[in-house]
Amino acid sequence: MSLATPAGPAPERKVAWITGGGTGTGRAVAAAAARAGWAVVVSGRRPEPLRETAAAIGRDGGEALALPLDVQDVTAVAAARAAVVERFGRLDGLVLAAGLNTPRRRWDDQDVSAVHDVIATNLLAPVTVVDAALPDLRRSAGVVVVVSSYAGWTFSPGAGVAYSASKTALGPLVRALNQQEAPHGVRACHLCPGDIATDFLDQRPEVPDEAARAVMLTPEDVARTVQFVLDSPPHVRFDEVVVSPLSQR
Ligand SMILES: NC(=O)c1ccc[n+]([C@@H]2O[C@H](COP(=O)([O-])OP(=O)(O)OC[C@H]3O[C@@H](n4cnc5c(N)ncnc54)[C@H](OP(=O)(O)O)[C@@H]3O)[C@@H](O)[C@H]2O)c1
Prior knowledge:
By secondary structure, the protein is of the alpha/beta class. The protein has nine helices and seven strands, in the order E-H-E-H-E-H-E-H-E-H-H-H-E-H-H-E.
């Protein structure tokens, strides 16, 4: 009797689609997923950071596709989802890291069109992308990581009207997704990071200096958390994860 394991076809790579994947947290998530053996698709509006991200992953031996899009554009999201499936034939993970804030974020100084833009990016776009990808996620028993915020977990006075409201609403969005889609094997995580040292901080009314950034989470800290969720077995769900730097107040 031979104890050798018959050599079957190499298992197909899992595929993750990361919005906001060209910069900051999304870029670190893409790099970590690629290192873990996933093929990755990165999306955002600016083509150049996406190309750079995909090229860096390629240089490290990973597989990455850059798909520029505005997540507010329902037609573009549907086309991108079709392109992912055409290229890879599957979608196993969705990481929604595209996000927006505005410096004028108080009731006494906000611009209503900016409020709409923040809510469209942070709340409506995740609905659009999950809706487009759900049939594929059902087929793969896939996992969704919605990159929300500490401000989506607990009221954070500095985060602003639109940002706080949009991120807080991601909690019930994820809970409804889990409640309704568990029978189809789909799992979702409301990921609530505290301060992360990225360019996102430049949108604050008072931009943190280097010393302040040095004690924040790094994008890689968050990427490690995301990868843990992505790589967990199909019967394990992380409904909500709060990850914050020791310095978070
Ligand atoms: N930094 C923090 O302290 C912090 C804390 C908690 C949560 N977060 C969340 O983490 C996520 C990632 O942010 P980050 O800190 O990594 O900052 P970041 O590097 O500025 O990432 C934001 C990303 O969103 C993309 N994006 C914005 N609007 C978009 C649109 N309409 N369509 C497509 N892509 C769009 C941007 O790319 P383009 O501009 O090229 O489109 C960019 O890649 C965000 O959801 C943010 O709310 C950040």
